[in-house]
Amino acid sequence: MLEVNSNRKIIHIDMDAFFASVEQMDNPELRGKPIAVGGAENRGVVAAASYEARKFGVRSAISGALAKKNCPDLIFVRPRFERYKEISTQIHKIFRDYTDLIEPLSLDEAYLDVTQNKKGNPSASLLAQEIRNRIFNEVGLTASAGISINKFVAKIASDYNKPNGQKTVTPDEVIPFLEVLPIRKFYGVGKVTTEKMYQLGIFTGLELKSKSLEFLQKHFGKAGTYYYHVVRGIHNSEVKSSRIAKSVAAEHTFEVNLSSEIFMLEQLDKIAISLERRLKKHNVSGKTVTLKIKYSDFTQQTRSKTLPYFIADKGLILETVKELLYQERMKDSVRLLGISMSSLNTEVRKSVVAVQLKFDF
Fold first, then answer.
1. Which residues lie closer than 8 Å to 282 by C-beta, 6 or more apart?
2. Is-catalytic flag, 109?
3. Model-level pTM?
4. E-strand stretches of 150-196
5. Nearest 5°: phi and psi at 337?
6. Over 80: is that where the pLDDT of 259 sits?
7. Out of 3.30.70.270, 3.30.1340.10, 1.10.10.10, 3.40.50.300, which CATH number does the structure's domain 1-15+82-241 have?
8. Contact predicate 123/116, CB 8 Å
9. What pLDDT sits at residue 361?
């Protein structure tokens, strides 16, 4: 039986509207205005939105057209990923002054294990405050933080006092915190699962906790075991300083929708070159090739094939993609194509620690 591991101090740092905040920092004329990074008035998808834009319902992953409809004064800004990587590197340099146990989730968020830290400070809350102050003073951006005994609770907590705030959930507070938490705020519970839980009478952590392991496994499969444990504060996943990628991908959204497989193949050739470059950069290869197709009506389809051997070569990737492309007829014109490689030749390390101690947060 797994036990709550309360002998850890985990910080989840989440930059506030990162891409949009970088653009506003670099261009004073954009400050205080609703902006969307990525997308366009008639095409594309929003990658990030400033807090001024979020008030109008503009958020990441919605179409540029819908974003403009929600916010007529919205300003679209072309993304500059090299700049975001540069800023992210500066932020991670600050992290390394406190711990080497850093697990990046993306350019704008990361877990830090500060149980044993370079400052010798027993208070994770004070460390989080110091890190956030340094990010603001040295980089010029605000960050929010969640602090608790595991990654699951820390990530949820970092969203509580956004933007530019932090929340600590001490060992004694974990269970009460989770019991009153709306189920839609549980990390790992998406929109579809939320609706299913509502139908089963599960609206809060307390109601989730009242369900047996058998009940949750019956309705949610393997995920049911995960829900059963996390609502009891059990999430012993370690902060991994070198995250192992599960897949490597490349994709492209087109200015004009494609309706001919010949034109699609031309674009897929370019995407395969980009994917090969990324695979070689990470020194990995994979067995499963997946073709991603997004149609003009925004519906999405994936087609996959698993090979008996690992590949990373552009020619072999494209050969498999051609098979997938001609597997069935396109149902509409295409606005986005992507290729991903999974079942990589990397090993996943698993470790479970179960110790129960008390300490100052």
1. 245, 248
2. yes
3. 0.71
4. 166-168
5. -130, 145
6. yes
7. 3.30.70.270
8. no
9. 62
Assigned CATH topology for domain 247-344: Dna Ligase; domain 1 (3.30.1490)
Assign a CATH topology to domain 18-81.
MutS, DNA mismatch repair protein, domain I (3.40.1170)
pLDDT of 1:
58
Please enumerate in sequence order all residues whose Cβ is within 8 A of that of 185, keeping only pairs 6 or more positions apart, or say none: 156, 159
Tell me the two tokens of residue 193. Answer: 């699962």
8-state DSSP, 62? S
Instruction: Consult the annotation and say whether 172 binds a ligand.
Output: no
Whether 131 has a pLDDT exceeding 80, the answer reads yes
b/e per residue 194-211 (b: at least 16 CB within 10 A)? beebeeeebebbbebeeb
14 known ligand binder? yes
- What's the one-letter identity of residue 345? N
**Which residue out of 109, 130, 214, 319 is catalytically annotated?**
109
* pLDDT surpassing 90 at residue 358: no
